[in-house]
Amino acid sequence: MKFATLHDVAETAGVSYATVDRVVNGRGGVAHKSVVRVQDAIEKLGYERDETAANLARKRVYRFHFLLPDDSNDFFHALNAALGSHQNQSNLLRTRFQTTRVPAFSEAGLADALDGIDPARTDCVCVVAFDTPIVIAAVRRAKARGLKIVTLVSDIPMTERNHYVGIDNLVAGKTAGRVMGLAHTRRAGCILPIIGASRAYDHTQRLNGFRALMQTHFPAVRLLDPVKSHDEPATIHSVLSDAWAAHPDLTGVYNIGAGNDGLIDWVSGIAPASRPVMVIHELLPSSRAALAAGLIDAVIDQKPHEAIGQALRIMRQLVDALTVSQETSLITPAIYLCENLPPIPAIPSTPTHRIPS
Fold this sequence. Notes:
This protein has three domains: 6-49, lambda repressor-like DNA-binding domains (434 Repressor (Amino-terminal Domain)); 62-166 and 304-331 and 345-354, Response regulator (Rossmann fold, 3-Layer(aba) Sandwich); 169-301, Rossmann fold. The longest helix is centred in the middle third of the chain and has 17 residues, at 201-217. The chain contains 13 helices and 13 strands. By secondary structure, the chain is of the alpha/beta class.
């Protein structure tokens, strides 16, 4: 299929290439009748402007700032590494990155980081957000200064940001529920959900989806009250030890957030025949090894490399004032078992800036 070019538009409209270029790029100085002829030719040919080529021609540089949690958990390390990988491939697209690591689960730290971004040097900010008044107020201030805001992994209300990139976390929780329920088919059980923080929108949505599916389709399985871990491996290890002592009938554990090293360390000390069914998030080196060793049953992965690529694409579209559809940009999570593990590519890291907690 041949795509229409500016030369095709000029020939159809009966005007010069320079005239078409001025109309398409809104530079003015063209007679009204010529503008109409160019617009008619564009509609007839179905011409679509190539934003990448246009930006290269006018030497435009996209200026993006990423705010990622300053957390030792492997998922955010993978997210930062994925950003470094894309950064190494972005020279042709004239994109400049800056990454600031903010204290994990710190509303004030995130708000301060947003307030410190200069719109004279940044076009769009990508942030792992919290659905709290402090963070939402900071997002509003950033947008009022002219910044575009994209939320990554964890969302806030759609009326507050420009776009969200990541999986549908409600669906992800339902997926975890389906996996856990199938493991309990025709038998009762007792399941412990572990949540990182109730302020994290992605965690609460996953928990809501998990509960809804289990209660609807597997009502014989009892859900314990969720416990908070702040994604700390040591806390998760301690929580599991306490739950195992208090509930000898524990048959399943769903870790909604990170800190899986503590979970893996705990389950490695349980006899394989009696250990609970373990469902976690994010396919990382430690979780991959645990799957292969039979310590974990299923991993739901939100594909950090794909998420960063999607974020960059959407950020460019927002800066170019293009229409972006939320439905078509959601990432479909992958479900990994020990039988379908893919290799994990080596991804280089990228320098970051940190702000004090």
